[in-house]
Write a structure and sequence with these properties.
With about 200 residues, this protein is of the alpha+beta class. The chain is globular, with a radius of gyration of 16 Å. The protein has 7 helices and 8 strands; from the N terminus they run βββααααβαβααβββ.
């Protein structure tokens, strides 16, 4: 196991939840941990970023691929395709949990998708600022959801047991302002919330 300041698997620094000061207290930086998330989350209206409803509350494989399945066909292995299907399935279950608690889902204005970043072939990942070289995005084992007001991150931090039930791990919200990074592969330390390096 790794400690709060040690480096975990794949260069990820992990938080040991049992000893993290915010786990048993009421805060994680600016993210409140509240056992009643419906009341805890501030719902800010954003007229330029439409909320979505109905069938649009899902992520499709096409949205997750972001067109890269055609451009980088040679890198799209059977294992990456299996990971993508599993990631999209778990993300859609997470989206259903958000919707059940009344968390606003917003699409990226430029794409009309909930996905901020899906599959990243090695070449694409190398161009992403601050991306770790062995990002789980490369293996289609991670998805960044568009989160302009950090409401999705706040819900996840307030609902760690739900994340565990979905088989998802969360990149620490301090590193994901404007998006919510979830992944289907545990960092080496296995903690639900982790730092990217």
């Amino acid at each position: 196991m790794c400690s709060a300041d040690s480096t975990g698997h794949r260069g990820q620094s992990c938080l040991r939840l049992a000893s993290a000061p915010w786990y048993s207290c009421t805060h994680i930086g600016r993210y409140a941990v509240n056992p009643q998330p419906k009341k805890a989350l501030a719902r800010r209206a954003a007229p330029h970023i439409p909320q979505i409803a109905g069938a649009s509350r899902v992520v499709t494989l096409a949205q997750f691929w972001m067109g890269r399945d055609a451009v980088y066909r040679a890198e799209l292995t059977e294992q990456i395709a299996r990971n993508a299907a599993q990631t999209v399935e778990r993300v859609n279950r997470l989206l259903a949990a958000f919707a059940a608690d009344g968390v606003a889902l917003r699409c990226r204005p430029d794409t009309g998708s909930l996905v901020a970043s899906g599959w990243r072939p090695v070449e694409v990942n190398a161009r992403v600022p601050m991306a770790v070289p062995d990002s789980p995005h490369i293996d289609a084992a991670a998805c960044d959801l568009y989160d302009p007001h950090n409401e999705l991150d706040a819900w996840c931090v307030s609902n760690l047991a739900a994340l565990a039930g979905l088989g998802l791990w969360l990149e620490h919200p301090e590193y994901t302002d404007g998006w919510c990074h979830v992944q289907i592969r545990a960092p080496r330390c296995g903690n639900r919330v982790f730092r990217p390096w």
